[in-house]
Amino acid sequence: MNIDLPKTMKAIRFHTYGGPEVLQLEDVPVPSAQAGEVLVHVHAAGVNPGDWQIRSGLAHRKFGIDVPLPSIPGYDVSGMVAVVGRGVTSFQRGDAVYGMTTQSAAYAQYTTADPTHLALKPLSLDHIQAAGVPMSAFTAWHTLFVRTRVVAGQTVLVNGAAGGVGHFVVQLAKGQGAQVAVNSTEQAIEPVGSPRHLTWLLLRKPHRS
């Protein structure tokens, strides 16, 4: 099937490690979906600490993580499936999806992704909201159910419960049947869940004289 795609796209790239000033808006070729991949038309991309750590060179210096330069940052993505690669049966063209890119390359109009790293976008979330979910939610899930193996009846203390990862930890732990204790202000955590279901360790901001 012939699919009318542009040959080039806009993308944010950096050619050398450094501060935000190294990010450049450029015209680059649209990537191709290889066998076992899908091409996603990006509607929104998430921003994570790992993005600036890679761009600044910190990940290279501290962890030995190298990326080919020039590089397009960004892992979290939400958009529409534009092309389905050979062998992919879990998605079809036009599906609204969210998840993580094959490589760090979400800050672009199109990006490729392993379909096992994607899911259908919930109707209750728009693309901007969905793009903020994948890495934070995965980190919370991995911490709770792989690293610590939380089960119903246990108590989970969430330090920074209103943060990007913390608010997912609160919701996932509650869903598992754990008792959740949070170290946060009530105003900050209110969108996550009813205060009646949480143990509050700090209800007021520290007073500064």
From TrEMBL:
<dbReference type="InterPro" id="IPR036291">
    <property type="entry name" value="NAD(P)-bd_dom_sf"/>
</dbReference>
<protein>
    <recommendedName>
        <fullName>Enoyl reductase (ER) domain-containing protein</fullName>
    </recommendedName>
</protein>
<dbReference type="GO" id="GO:0003723">
    <property type="term" value="F:RNA binding"/>
</dbReference>
<keyword id="KW-0694">RNA-binding</keyword>
<dbReference type="InterPro" id="IPR013154">
    <property type="entry name" value="ADH-like_N"/>
</dbReference>
<comment type="subunit">
    <text>Homotetramer.</text>
</comment>
<keyword id="KW-0521">NADP</keyword>
<dbReference type="GO" id="GO:0005737">
    <property type="term" value="C:cytoplasm"/>
</dbReference>
<dbReference type="GO" id="GO:0008270">
    <property type="term" value="F:zinc ion binding"/>
</dbReference>
<dbReference type="Pfam" id="PF08240">
    <property type="entry name" value="ADH_N"/>
</dbReference>
<keyword id="KW-0963">Cytoplasm</keyword>
<dbReference type="GO" id="GO:0016491">
    <property type="term" value="F:oxidoreductase activity"/>
</dbReference>
<feature type="domain" description="Enoyl reductase (ER)">
    <location>
        <begin position="18"/>
        <end position="203"/>
    </location>
</feature>
<dbReference type="InterPro" id="IPR020843">
    <property type="entry name" value="ER"/>
</dbReference>
<dbReference type="InterPro" id="IPR002364">
    <property type="entry name" value="Quin_OxRdtase/zeta-crystal_CS"/>
</dbReference>
<dbReference type="InterPro" id="IPR051603">
    <property type="entry name" value="Zinc-ADH_QOR/CCCR"/>
</dbReference>
<dbReference type="InterPro" id="IPR011032">
    <property type="entry name" value="GroES-like_sf"/>
</dbReference>
